[in-house]
Structures are given as structure tokens and as C-alpha cells.
Amino acid sequence: MTDNKVRLDCLVKTVRTEGYFGMYRGAAVNLTLVTPEKAIKLAANDIFRQKLSKDGKLPLWGEILAGCGAGTCQVVVTTPMEMLKIQLQDAGRLVAQKSTTTPTATPQPAPSLVAPKASHNTPRARPSATSITMELVRTRGFAGLYRGAGATLLRDIPFSMIYFPLFANLNTLGQTDPGCHGDKLKRAPFLHSFMAGCVAGSVAAVAVTPLDVIKTRLQTLQKGEGEDSYRGIADCIRRVLTREGPTAFLKGATCRALVIAPLFGIAQGVYFLGVGEQVIGLMG
Predict the structure, then answer these.
(1) b/e for 104-132, b at 16 or more Cβ within 10 A?
(2) Which residue has the higher pLDDT, 101 or 249?
(3) Roughly how many angstroms between the first and final C-alpha of the chain, as a whole number?
(4) What does the pLDDT average to over 21-31?
(5) How crowded is residue 201: how many other Cβ atoms within 10 Å of its Cβ?
(6) What's residue 118's pLDDT?
(7) Cα-atom radius of gyration of the chain, to the nearest Å?
(8) Could you write out the DSSP letters of every residue in 179-219?
(9) How does DSSP classify residue 228?
(10) Cβ atoms within 10 A of the Cβ of 224, count?
(11) CA-to-CA distance for 40 and 38, rounded, in angstroms?
(12) Which of 158, 155, 159, 133 is nearest to 146 (CA)?
């Protein structure tokens, strides 16, 4: 089955089993946490770039190192956000899978790490972000929200190391004046910053897709029929390679690029317009 057919099949099945708004599962978590995540990422990159600059110049290794620092800082917010979002988005698939199987025909899925075993005759309510958070904290402590933090670091650090230097160099092409840092004349037009963010975001997203696949597999707490439970990053890589082949690590690359490109395009465009500084000025 081609990638286009897989994406279309996923869309049709999601709408059929969960309705149109099933495609927006996890949106509340994203809306709540994506703003501080992007704020931390962009601000940390700027701080590291300033600290590593000499006489207003920053070599490529400095740009990469600043991106590394930004990617490390954002994991504080990214890991719990991704954990909750994945569980919410996966809930509908598990409910649909259970409704099409009978207790005597197939083996049970792997036990849930966040919920008690449910009776076959009792329909399970789909969890909310609040219920997942409370159950994780109750059963595994605060650290339960950071399950998969290592895999998240493994994805976000390389992403930022690719994204920020690429964006900075693409954005420089649109700057009309080599003025000092913060000078409005130095800023590229909004459209240019937007496109630079889109291009850099899509390139970085595709480049780290294998790491995103590993992270998602590790953070999926409730397993369906025939799905593996992984003991860590190395175990996940080995099993995926053995059972699905190398191409499994590129699953969702196109969708990731389509989502990440406008997300970072808008974020960088707004950031470079100085909206954040204006809001802070109004609040002060």
C-alpha cells in the first residue's frame, strides 16, 4: 500500500470510528503546552546564540551548539505534552479495535500501564488528559509524565541542531541591512521569515522522523492486539528493524513535514515581528 493510500485509509477510519472531531484528539493538550514549549525553544536559542557570539559573529558550530541547548531546554515541557497527546490520540484506535474482536477469538493485548483491566462487557470511556495525568501521577509518580524523556531528547536535540542553523542562514538571505541585533532594519520581511521557518522545519522534521517513530512507540502506554511492548530505545530499534524493516522508521514523514512546516513558519514569523516584546511591554 502506498503512503498516500495509507494516509487516506487512516483518515477514513478515524472519521468513521470517532467522527470528524476524532482528528482533533489531543488538541487541548497542544493548545495548553505548545505556547510555552515554543517560547522556551526560541528564547533559549537566542540566549545561547548571544552567549556564543563573538563580535556579533557566530560560527556554524556555535549555531549548532545553540540549537542543541534549545532542544535540551524544551524537553521539560515537550515530554509530558507528547505523552498525554499520544494517549488521547491512540484511545479511539484501541476502542475501535476492541469493538471488532471477541474475548474468545483473540489473545488479550498487553496490560495498560495507566489504567486497570476493564471487563469485556463494560464499554470503556475514552480517557481525558486530566484522567491520564492523575493516573500516571498516582501509579508512577511525577516521573511517569516523563516516560520516554530520553527518546524525546534524542529527537528534539538533533531537530534543533538542524532547524536553527538552517533557519538562521535562510532568514539572513532576506535581511536588508546588516544593522545591530534587534534593529528592525535587520529583520527579514514576515513572509520571508515564514517561508524560512517552513523550509527549515520540514527539512528537520523529515530528518528526525526515525527518532520520532521510536519516541512514539515508547510513549504509547496501552498496546493493542499484536503490538509490542519495548524495554528501551535499543530494544525498540531492534524489534522494529526485525519485524517491519528499515522503512518503518520513515512512517509519517510526510505528515510530520506538513504539520511542522507551517507551525514553525508561523512561530518564527511572529517571533521576528517582535510580538512577544510588544505584549511584554503592554503588560509592564
Answers:
(1) eeeeebeebbbbeeeeeeeeeeebebeeb
(2) 249
(3) 56
(4) 65
(5) 27
(6) 47
(7) 21
(8) --TT-GGGSPPHHHHHHHHHHHHHHHHHHTHHHHHHHHHHH
(9) -
(10) 15
(11) 5
(12) 133
Torsion of CA 216, 217, 219, 225, to 10 degrees: 130
Distance CA 213, CA 249 (A): 6
Q: d(Cα 254, Cα 192) in Å, to the nearest integer?
A: 23
Closest CA to 209 of 171, 244, 246: 246
227 Ramachandran zone, left/alpha/beta (phi>0; psi -120 to 50): beta
HSE toward the beta carbon, residue 167, CA cutoff 13 A: 31
Distance CA 188, CA 74 (A): 26
Of residues 198, 162, 180, the one with CA closest to residue 63: 162
Beta strands in 52-133 (DSSP E): none
Displacement of CA 48 from its chain's centroid (Å): 22
Rounded to whole angstroms, the Cα distance separating 24 from 92 reads 11
Q: What is the pLDDT of residue 19?
A: 65
509524565: which residue's cell?
A: 145
Separation between Cα atoms, residue 14 and residue 1, nearest integer Å: 18
**Angle subtended at Cα 258 by Cα 12 and Cα 87, rounded to the nearest 5 degrees:** 60
**d(Cα 154, Cα 219) in Å, to the nearest integer?**
13
What is the rounded CA–CA span in Å between residue 199 and residue 173?
13
- Give residue 86's region: left, alpha or beta (phi > 0; psi -120 to 50): alpha
221 close to 85: Cβ distance less than 8 angstroms: no
Mean pLDDT of 94-102: 55
Q: Distance between CA 242 and CA 236 in Å, rounded?
A: 10
